[in-house]
Specification:
Length: 773
C-alpha cells in the first residue's frame, strides 16, 4: 500500500517538474534566441535530485499519515493464474452462477464472494463486447460487398457495353441488365436478413447488430417452397447459419452441440447443403411453436363446444384462416383429428420437459401409447445447460391396443422452448422422410403430425398445469371400421389419452417414492419388495402390449388365420435364452370385439377376483382370493395383485396369479399371468424380478367412440369414476407355450386350442355382463 502511494506521488511530482522545466525552456528560448543544451541537461540533473529528495520526504510523510489513518487502506489484488483458470472453467459451464455456486468457488479459491461476482460480471461484459465486435465486422463485410455491387451497377449504367462485340448498347439492354442486378441484389439482402432474423428468434434474445434489419423478411421464403412440396430433397437455398454462432461459448450457443445419432439412414441432414437443411428445420420448428402456443391459448371461435360428447372441437374454417399450412396440403383420403385437454399433474415442469426430450424416458412414461421411439438426430442440445432451444429429429410408432388398428409411424421434429419463467413448451411437427406405407402394409399406416405438443406451467406445490394439443392427419383406410369412430373422436390417441396416461404414470411414481402405505394388503411388504413387484408387473404389461400391437418388432411371425377369421391375429415366436420367459415355442392370439356395456362396468367385472370363475379357466370354476395388493395410485382399481385360486388342483399347489390393473379416461387394462410361488417369494423380499418366467394374457378396454357424454359411475370399491357412455371395444390376447422344443412348429391342435379358449372366454364375458342389471 505504501509503495503504491509513493509511486503515485513520484509520478505526480515528475509531471509537475516537467511542466516547470518546459516553461523555463520557453522563457530561456525567448531571452537567448536559441536553446542551450548544457544548461538544459544541468537543469534536468538538478531537477531529478530535487525530485528524489522531495519524494523521499513525501514518502515518509505519507507513511506517517497511513499509520495515523489505518481505516483508509485499500488492497488491490491480482488473481493468480490458477484462480483465473478455475474461474474460466466455471464460466464456460455457468455464465450466470447462483449465490451458492459463487460461495463455493470463493471458498475454493480463497476469494471474497464480491470478487467472484464482479469477475463474472466483467467477463460477461467482455464477452458481449467481443460478440458485438464480431457481428459488426460481419455486417461491415456485407456492407462492403453491397457497395461493390452498387459500384458495378453504376458502372454498367454509365458505360453500357455489349458482351459480344464490346460496342455501346441501346437503352433497352441497359434497363434489362440493371433490372437483373437489382433483383440479385435484393435477393441477397433478403437472404441475409432472413438468416439473421432466424438466429435472433431461435436464440430468444435481442442482438445489437440485428436491431435494424436490412430489408423486410421475404414472404415467399425457402421454407414455403420446400415444405409446400412436402419434400426435403434438392433444396435450392444458399443461406447458412451465421458464423457468429460458432463464436459464442458452449453455454450460450444453441448450435454448438450438433451431434448425429442416427439409427436409420434417412438422408435428411446429409449432403453438401447440410447447414441449409438445418436452417430450414429451425424455421419449421419456430413456425410450429408459434402455432402450438396460439392453439393452446385461443378459445371460441377456434375451439367450439361439441354438444354430443361435452368436449370442444376444432373449427377448421377458422383454423385455415388463422394458421398457414406449414407442412403442405392434406393428402387425399386422409382424415383430421384435433383435440385439446388441460389438467394438473403431480410432476415438475422441468422434469417433464427433460422426459419428453429423451426418447427412452418418453416411451417409458407412455407405455400404452408408444410402441417404439428413437432420436434420429440432435440438431441442437439446448442453451445454458437446459433444454431451452433444444431441437431433435425423432421417430415414433404410436399404438392403439388392438390388432385391428395399424401402428402410426411418424418422423417428426421436436422443439423445446422456455416461454417464460416456469413455463415451457414442447412442440412436434412431422417432416416427410419418404415412409408412405400403402394400405396393404397392414402393420403400419401413414400419419402426419401437425403442430402438436404441450404447454407446461410449474406450480408451487409440486404440481404442473399441462395444456395438451393433438392435431394429426392419417389414412384411415387401413383401420377396421369398428375402430374408426374411436380414432376420429380423439379418445384413442388424442390429447385426453396423453394427459390421462401421464397422470396415471406420475401417480404411480409418486406412490412408489412415498414411504407412506395405506393398503393393508401390502403393509408387511418392504420398500424393496414393493419396487420389485411393480417392476415385475410393468414387464408383464409391456410384454402384453407388444404381443397385441408391436409384434413385428419383437420377433413375432404371423400365421394364417384359417378358421379364426380376418379379425383375429395368430402369431408364433421362439423364446431362447430369456430368463423372463419359459424356453420354447410360444403361440399368441389376439382379437377385438364390441361389448355393449360401458367400459367402467366391463373393467370392474374383469378385475373382480370373486367373479373370475365365470370366465377364467385358471380359477377352476371358482372364485379367487387376493393375498397381496400393491397400490399404484389413488384409485383402488390401479394396483398389482397376487391371486390364489380357491379351488386348487393337485398340480396347481405352487401356482399364483399375478395381475396388473390400471384405468383412466381413455383405456383400461387387466393383465395377468400364472407365476411360481417360490419365485414370487424372492420378488417380495426385494429380489430381481427379471428371472421370473411367465407368459402374459389379458384384456384392453377402450370406449367405442360413439360420442355420448361421459357419465360418473361407482366402482366395485365404492369410488366414483368418470366413464365414457356407450359400448366398449374389448381386446382379448393370450400367450401360451405350445412346445419346449425349439425345432417344433405350432400344430393345428395347438392353434385350435387357443381358438377355442378365446371364443369361450369372449362368450362367457358377454354372457356375464349382459345378464347383469
Amino acid at each position: 500500500m505504501f509503495t503504491l502511494l509513493a509511486l503515485s506521488l513520484t509520478l505526480e511530482t515528475n509531471m509537475k517538474g516537467q511542466d516547470e522545466m518546459s516553461q523555463l525552456g520557453v522563457i530561456g528560448g525567448v531571452g537567448d534566441g536559441s536553446g542551450d543544451k548544457d544548461s538544459m541537461s544541468r537543469n534536468r540533473e538538478d531537477e531529478n535530485t530535487n525530485n528524489l529528495e522531495t519524494n523521499s520526504l513525501k514518502e515518509i510523510s505519507i507513511n506517517d499519515l497511513d499509520q495515523e489513518n489505518p481505516r483508509k487502506k485499500k488492497r488491490y489484488h491480482r488473481h493468480t493464474a490458477q484462480q483465473i483458470q478455475e474461474l474460466e472453467t466455471l464460466f464456460k459451464e455457468y455464465p450466470h452462477p447462483n449465490e451458492k455456486q459463487r460461495l463455493e468457488l470463493s471458498k475454493q479459491l480463497c476469494l471474497d464472494t464480491r470478487q467472484v461476482k464482479f469477475w463474472f460480471q466483467n467477463r460477461r461484459t467482455q464477452l458481449k463486447t467481443q460478440i458485438e465486435h464480431h457481428e459488426n465486422s460481419i455486417l461491415r463485410q456485407e456492407n462492403e460487398k453491397l457497395k461493390s455491387e452498387n459500384m458495378t451497377i453504376r458502372d454498367a449504367m454509365i458505360n453500357p457495353c455489349c458482351n459480344s462485340c464490346g460496342g455501346p448498347t441501346i437503352l433497352g439492354e441497359v434497363s434489362l441488365e440493371e433490372k437483373n442486378l437489382r433483383i440479385e441484389n435484393a435477393r441477397l439482402k433478403d437472404e441475409i436478413n432472413r438468416v439473421y432474423s432466424l438466429a435472433k428468434k431461435f436464440l430468444g434474445r435481442a442482438m445489437s447488430s440485428l436491431d435494424n434489419p436490412i430489408s423486410p423478411i421475404m414472404p415467399n421464403s425457402a421454407l414455403e417452397l420446400v415444405i409446400g412440396n412436402n419434400s426435403f430433397n434438392g433444396f435450392d437455398m444458399i443461406s447458412t447459419l451465421p458464423t457468429m454462432l460458432d463464436f459464442v461459448p458452449r453455454a450460450s450457443n444453441p448450435m454448438v452441440s450438433i451431434t448425429t445419432s442416427s439409427t436409420r439412414n434417412y438422408g435428411i441432414l446429409g449432403g453438401a447443403d447440410k447447414s441449409n437443411k438445418r436452417s430450414i428445420l429451425l424455421e419449421l420448428a419456430l413456425a410450429a411453436m408459434e402455432e402450438l402456443v396460439k392453439m393452446a391459448q385461443l378459445e371460441d371461435p377456434l375451439w367450439i363446444p361439441n354438444l354430443e360428447g361435452g368436449k370442444e372441437m376444432l373449427n377448421y374454417n377458422e383454423y385455415y384462416q388463422v394458421f398457414p399450412r406449414i407442412i403442405g396440403v392434406k393428402p387425399i383420403g386422409y382424415v383430421s383429428e384435433a383435440t385439446r385437454e388441460s389438467e394438473v399433474v403431480i410432476i415438475n415442469s422441468q422434469v417433464l420437459v427433460e422426459t419428453l426430450m429423451d426418447a427412452t424416458r418418453w416411451a417409458d412414461m407412455f407405455p400404452t401409447l408408444i410402441a417404439r421411439s428413437a432420436t434420429i438426430d440432435t440438431i441442437c442440445s439446448g442453451m445454458d445447460g437446459s433444454k431451452n432451444g433444444a431441437l431433435q429429429l425423432m421417430h415414433a410408432e404410436l399404438q392403439v391396443l388392438s390388432p385391428l388398428v395399424p401402428i402410426h409411424s411418424i418422423d417428426f421434429l421436436r422443439y423445446c422452448k422456455q416461454q417464460a419463467e416456469n413455463v415451457w413448451a414442447v412442440v412436434d411437427v412431422s417432416i416427410d422422410c419418404g415412409n408412405n406405407y400403402p394400405p396393404s402394409a397392414g402393420t403400419y399406416m401413414s400419419c402426419r403430425r401437425l403442430p402438436s405438443g404441450c404447454i407446461v406451467q410449474n406450480m408451487s406445490n409440486g404440481y404442473s398445469k399441462i395444456t395438451w394439443v393433438e392435431h394429426t392427419e392419417y389414412d384411415e383406410s387401413g383401420v377396421h371400421p369398428l375402430y374408426r369412430p374411436l380414432l376420429r373422436s380423439g379418445l384413442a390417441l388424442g390429447a385426453r389419452s396423453w394427459v390421462s396416461s401421464l397422470r396415471r404414470r406420475c401417480e404411480c411414481i409418486a406412490n412408489l417414492i412415498s414411504s407412506f402405505t395405506t393398503d393393508e394388503h401390502s403393509a408387511a411388504l418392504s420398500g424393496g419388495g414393493k419396487r420389485s413387484m411393480l417392476r415385475l408387473a410393468r414387464r408383464m404389461t409391456d410384454s402384453f402390449c407388444a404381443g397385441v400391437c408391436a409384434w413385428a418388432t419383437h420377433g413375432w411371425r404371423e400365421l394364417t388365420a384359417g378358421s379364426f377369421g380376418e379379425d383375429v391375429r395368430v402369431m408364433t415366436r421362439k423364446s431362447v435364452n430369456n430368463p423372463g420367459e419359459p424356453q420354447g415355442v410360444v403361440l399368441s392370439a389376439a382379437t377385438s370385439v364390441l361389448v355393449p356395456v360401458p367400459p367402467q362396468r366391463l373393467f370392474d367385472f374383469l378385475r373382480d377376483e370373486r367373479r373370475r370363475g365365470e370366465w377364467d379357466i385358471l380359477s377352476n370354476g371358482g372364485p379367487m382370493q387376493e393375498v397381496l395388493r400393491v397400490a399404484k395410485g389413488h384409485h383402488a382399481a390401479i394396483a398389482v395383485s397376487l391371486l390364489r385360486p380357491s379351488v386348487v388342483g393337485a398340480s396347481e399347489t405352487s401356482m399364483l396369479i399375478l395381475q396388473d390393473t390400471c384405468t383412466d379416461a381413455s383405456v383400461s387394462l387387466v393383465v395377468y399371468a400364472p407365476v411360481d410361488v417360490s419365485a414370487m417369494h424372492v420378488v417380495m423380499n426385494g429380489g430381481d424380478p427379471a428371472y421370473v418366467a411367465f407368459l402374459p394374457s389379458g384384456f384392453a378396454i377402450l370406449p367405442d367412440g360413439s360420442g355420448g357424454r361421459a357419465t360418473t359411475v361407482k366402482s366395485r370399491a365404492g369410488e366414483l369414476a368418470e366413464s365414457p357412455a356407450g359400448g366398449s371395444l374389448l381386446t382379448v390376447a393370450f400367450q401360451i407355450l405350445v412346445s419346449s422344443n425349439l425345432n417344433d412348429n405350432p400344430k393345428d391342435e395347438s392353434v385350435k386350442t387357443v381358438s377355442n379358449l378365446m371364443s369361450c372366454t369372449i362368450q362367457n364375458i358377454k354372457t356375464a355382463v349382459q345378464c347383469e342389471n
